[in-house]
């Protein structure tokens, strides 16, 4: 179902009531926001800035898949409610992660796009459950997933009747240790050759380092990605998760202008 042999034209995902579009190659979708929703004040401060700079989608984690069980796990339901308020106020559509069957039900109620994280890319029961919903599903590439495995994760969602799948490259584990992960931009044209599904690039988790996020975002647009997902924080030194890779709202604004210039020449 994910294959171009079955469907030649690009899948385009629209969001009724907005001009937000993901896929189709004519539009760069911008997903921005903090790693985690920490407080109402924090989330609104960031949301207002990224909306003003032109983001169509707001991201923020309410359920966080943290490496340590003692690290901040997210605000849960309260985080979802804050994001719903942000949608009302800014018009941005909401993308947030479900980490299991239980949180999936809550995410479906509040969000516009269900995110399946890298660590769950081969959680086949969760993928099938997301496939039973009728909300778009963003599947992040597992940190050791091949192209084939990545596409099969999308296939799991689609096999249950949900064809609104968005792929997201977020970096893979390699021997290179100058970045948190190695952002594999070559997967963008590879996906586009084999599949009609849209693909976004996340240079934040892809590099783990603030000073590398904007250059890789530019490269992602240049290579033909359908959009980017980027972590933004107004006080990254105080962030409860992923502060070192979160860019400042001012950097985000400059980046948006640069991405527009790059998209123009494509
Ligand atoms: C995230 O987007 O905040 C996240 C946890 O990403 P990943 O699943 O790619 O690590
Ligand atoms: Mn993060």
UniProtKB/TrEMBL annotation:
Instruction: Tell whether Cell membrane is among the UniProt keywords.
Output: no
Q: Where is the DAHP synthetase I/KDSA domain?
A: 19-264
Residue stretches spanning the membrane:
none
What are the record keywords, sorted? Transferase
Establish whether keyword Lyase is in the entry: no
* Protein origin, superkingdom: Bacteria
For this protein, what is any one GO molecular function term?
Answer: 3-deoxy-7-phosphoheptulonate synthase activity
Q: What is its EC number?
A: 2.5.1.54
Q: What is this protein called?
A: 3-deoxy-7-phosphoheptulonate synthase
The part of the entire sequence present here spans 71 to 336 of 351
